[in-house]
Write a structure and sequence with these properties.
CATH architecture of the largest domain: 3-Layer(aba) Sandwich
Strand content: 25-35%
Radius of gyration: 18 Å
Order of helices and strands: HEEEHEHHEHEHEEEE
Largest sheet: 4 strands, mixed
CATH topology of the largest domain: Rossmann fold
CATH class of the largest domain: Alpha Beta
Structural class: alpha+beta
Mean pLDDT: 79
Helix content: 25-40%
Number of strands: 10
CATH superfamily of the largest domain: Alpha/Beta hydrolase fold, catalytic domain
Number of helices: 6
Strand order of the largest sheet: 1-2-4-3
Length: 198
Amino acid sequence: MKKILLITIIAFIGNLNGYSQTSKIEYGNNPDAGHYVNVNGIKLYYEVYVEGEPLLLIHGNGGSIRGHSDKIEHFKNKYQVIAADNRAHGKTQDIGDSLTYKNMTSDFNELLEHKPKNNAIGMAAEMGIELLTEEQYRELQKLGIFDLKTSSWIVTPTDIREKGGALFCDYRFGHVFVYHNGAESYYAARGFRGSIRV
């Protein structure tokens, strides 16, 4: 109940604060974080920022993700921020049906339930490659800079996997960082890097 209340409060605050973008990131039109998902017969546009407990930002009538710029900047330091354009708003498709709270609620539920059909381990196996280990990921960063705005799943030790965890890495501030999350977690901005033996 607390999460729903927080989301609702942020939705209303968004209408009161107005728009003043202080970041160099163009929220609402960010190709590094923006994605489309098919839900309820529409193409819903959303953006995902960083890792952590998910926080969904919902804008009001006539708004868009762009209006949440300051809130995304503030909350992405603590939460995984998911911001979406409501149907017929921003970059989300308008199919001409009625805009109702029931439709929009269903759209957001579908967005939050949307998961890839496979996990990183299964996808890598289908491609005939292996996920990188932490050591291999660190070596990769010596060849070039990867994952400045994204992150990648890496091989997770068996004891952590058995407890439901998974590891991933990114590259920030000139260093490789290793994080953990639930193995069932999924994020549009996280992929994986693999190796193939020849």
